[in-house]
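[User] Could I get a sequence and structure tokens?

[Assistant]
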Amino acid sequence: MTALGRLRPTLINPTYTRLWFGQAVSSVGDAVFSTTLVLWVATVLAEGKSWGPQAVSGVVLATSAAVMFVGPFAGVFVDRWDKRATMLGTEVLRGGLVAVLTVVAFVPTRELPAGAWLALIYVIVLVLNAAGQFFTPARFSIIAELVTDEADRARAAGIAQATAQTAWIIGPPLAAPLLFAVGLQWALLFNALSYLVSYIAISSADLRPVNPARTAPTAPRTGKGAERPDKAAERPGLFKDFAEGLRFFARNRFLVALLVLTVIGQLGMGALSTLNIFFATRNLHVSAESYGYLGMALGIGGIAGALAAGRVVQWIGARRTTWIGLMASGALLVLYSRQTGFPAAVTLLFVFVVPITMLNTAMAPLLLAATPQEFRGRVISVFYPVTRLAAMLTAVLSGWLAGSGLRDFSGSVAGLRFGPIDTIFAVSGLVVVLAGVYARLGLPASEAAPTPAPAQAPGTAVPDAEPAREPAAMAVEAHGEAVGETPTEAPAEDPTGPTGPVETPEGRS
């Protein structure tokens, strides 16, 4: 190896570094795209119109509809299809759709009715996010096969989270100048090109094809690892496959425990994302302009927690990181609710999001180790929509409590006065602490989750399986690759996705 080769910077390994670069560019593209659409609809298309807020909310509803209605079934197809081909196909589809919108954006806004513009935007946003429901579990499944060490999985998940957080620090400030200085079409073109970068990164990676548990007729495999036609003919129906995945999830007490912990973890971030602006103006007594510093503290803390998570998991294990992170973040949220000074609140918010990001990252190796290969797509397609729904319901509940249920609430305990918003924060924090106690008692004592053996006929061997590893933490065997990461060590993506405790907008990762 040359000196230049030794000095070449890598993240986990060279192939992952290439794929990470594609993810980083595409994540910034997502942030620019989402921010641009909201700004354009609000300030150009619906300028001065009473229906402006409803028009903007339609973008959010289109995103949520894709997650809730497409996400649960996408995993069934991902478990059948070639994972690399699935990821490449979704990038082609999404890049093509954004390119079409870019071309249409050259048409003057007044040439088309506002309803036509909104319909086009909603449909494209819906399809983009629907395609993302196939991309995410495909990437998750590939990661599970490529990374078996618990600390490496946590490290890779931390890199993915830090990248997503950074993208949403960089992207929105880029969106406004692009929109107002050079126009909507050029901001959209930036996102279309980011899909191209992601496609090139995936296709150029040296990845072997994954052997799926089943092969769908619509996505036949050829060459090494292909299943025989008689095996493909034995494939059960779509709904039977879907029901089988739900039964597996429901009967796996470990997966159910992880899902419960993740849903409870939404209480803290859900309440903060909805009510923190009112907490800043009413409890911290600062102007709305200062609210941006609280968001900055969350972003920087999320990056710090994600980058430190791998080392912490290696030090104390994923299980301890999970329950300690829940207890610490819940206690810090209670402490944050009692603040009346702005500098202390900013500091506490930064500290609060560090452990909650670490536990979000620590859940990745636990979820990966608990899920056999043939169920990974369906498991993540249950996990992601449920946590997304929990985030939505938490936001709605927090808003209702602050605006109606506890609007006139006031009380005092031991000389401490409580109002509606700080009470909601404090109760949310206490529930998160209780979730930490549940995690301490409910998660298995060993650092690796029990991994069910993949279903197979008696006397047959798992294709391309490596010999069993000695450490119990290496619960998932590495098979062939697909797109997303490298054959040896690839990123362990956060299984809770953009909707874990530290929520990020829908992206490609």
